[in-house]
From TrEMBL:
Pfam families: HTH_22, PAS_6. Signal peptide: none annotated. InterPro entries: DauR-like (IPR039446), DauR-like_HTH (IPR039445), YheO (IPR013559). It comes from the Bacteria. It comes from Rhizobium lusitanum. The lineage of its organism: Bacteria, Pseudomonadati, Pseudomonadota, Alphaproteobacteria, Hyphomicrobiales. Residues 20-123 form the YheO-like domain. Residues 151-212 form the Transcriptional regulator DauR-like HTH domain. This is Putative transcriptional regulator YheO.
Length: 219
């Protein structure tokens, strides 16, 4: 009688099956979540076989042709890091591992796409904090009234000059408003960035980006 074993036998992975790399994709995506996705491409069908932590809104079964165009030749096993742009304009840093069989033939790609937006926002925040250390005195008005009321008045003046409503502001209007507030010293206020982001319906990172450009344009 054959001896029974407690541990079930696992099926041997089929060579050239890209789905054997799914646990690796999930492990990397879990470690870097929510800032990175891992995409497995099947070069035999030139389609996406698997996506872990999907931030690019692509579909499994979709074409891999765009990815192949981005990375070019597959002469090395690791390609990158190289820049990519997500569907919503966010900048990504990507790296690709080429999957080969025992004969050295390529059959798949494992691509990691990392969202740089949180890093850029943190960098901009640190830059602003460093700038605040050398900032001059705050406007007197900020000590004599509630700062939110003072900021609201400055925004109302800006809107009145342009004949606009806050809900109708375009990207260039946001940039001009933030430049005006920077020129008048309002960014000395500690909590101004999240307050402006909420009022204008834009992200904090966008406020920081407009502010950085306004400071860079100063004579």
């Amino acid at each position: 009688m054959p001896r029974k074993t407690d541990a079930p036998r696992r099926a041997k992975p089929i060579e050239g099956d890209v789905l054997q790399f799914v646990p690796i994709a999930e492990a990397v995506a879990t470690l870097l979540k929510p800032h990175a996705e891992v995409v497995i491409h099947d070069l035999r069908t030139q389609t996406i076989a698997y996506i872990a932590n999907n931030i690019s809104r692509r579909d499994v079964g979709g074409s891999s042709l765009a990815e192949l165009k981005d990375i070019g030749e597959l002469g090395t096993d690791v390609i990158g890091p190289y820049p990519k742009t997500n569907f919503d304009g966010r900048q990504l840093k990507s790296i690709t591992a080429v999957l080969r069989n025992s004969g050295g033939e390529t059959f798949g790609l494992l691509c990691i796409n990392f969202d740089l937006a949180p890093i850029e926002a943190a960098r901009d925040a640190l830059t602003l904090l460093a700038a605040f250390q050398g900032a001059g005195t705050q406007p007197t008005a900020l000590f004599n009234a509630d700062w939110q009321e003072t900021v609201n008045t400055a925004i109302a003046d800006f809107l009145g000059e342009r004949g606009l409503a806050a809900s109708a502001l375009a990207k260039e209007d946001h940039a001009a408003l933030i430049e005006r507030l920077e020129q008048e010293g309002y960014f000395s206020i500690r909590n101004l960035v999240p307050y402006l982001a909420r009022l204008l319906g834009i992200s904090r990172a966008t406020v920081y980006n407009h502010l950085r450009r306004a400071r860079q344009s100063k004579p």
